[in-house]
Amino acid sequence: MKREAPIVLAGIVGLIQILEHFFDFEAIAAVTVELQNWVIIVSAFSLALAAINLAINHTQKISAKKAGAFDSALLLITMVFTAVAGIFWGMESSGFKFVFNAIIDPAASAFYAMAAFHVASAAYRAFRAHNAHAAALLITGVMLMIAKAPIGEAWFPWMPTITNWIMSVLNLAGVRGIMISSAIGMICVSARILLGIDRSHLGLGRD
């Protein structure tokens, strides 16, 4: 019963959501709203549990004086300060905004600045013309980079027209193919979960 009950519950909840999406039943709509509210509540408790687990792990790391203990202490101080400021003073308070303006935004900017080097390195390895596909990628990538730069448009006035066609026709066709494939995969996974074939989301495996 402990194994079957979560599978049956997941199937019923998923079926209710599907029926509410395709059929206009007031009773089902009320149930789906209630289920969505419960999802929000469970997500909030999950977030709180994750924060407690994070605090315990980093507290143990600080007490053991392991490498990175200073970073763990800074993380805990920032997390507690942000939680206190948001709960007691509100998200519009100066203390809550200070965390984002002085810590999160600069850290995000630094992260993206460092990621640019990794992107450049990956592009260098990917743009090696070992075969016809790599050569096409190299030519298209160079054309797009030149067309997006102001100097490229000044040198080659005709290039933006070609690159716009590439983005609106070739690239869009590829993106739509990826979206269709992703949608089909999502439908297949959802069907496996609703039928109880895939139980990995419950930690029960396949049997």
Task: Supply the key terms.
207 residues; mainly alpha; 7 helices; 82% helix
Q: What can you see in these coordinates?
A:
This protein has 207 residues and is mostly helical. The protein has a domain at 150-207. 82% of the residues lie in helices and 0% in strands. The protein is built from seven helices and no strands. Helix 2 (26-63) packs across helix 3 (69-89).
- How much β-strand is present in the residues? under 5%
Biggest pleated-sheet summary? none
CA-CA gap between termini? 14 Å
Shape: extended
Number of helices: 7
Unreliable residue stretches: none
Considering DSSP H and I runs of 4 or more, what fraction of the residues is helical? Answer: over 70%
Strand element count: 0
Average pLDDT across residues? 80
Order of helices and strands: HHHHHHH
| Oligomeric status | single chain
The Rg value, from CA coordinates, equals: 26 Å
Which class best fits the helix and strand makeup? mainly alpha
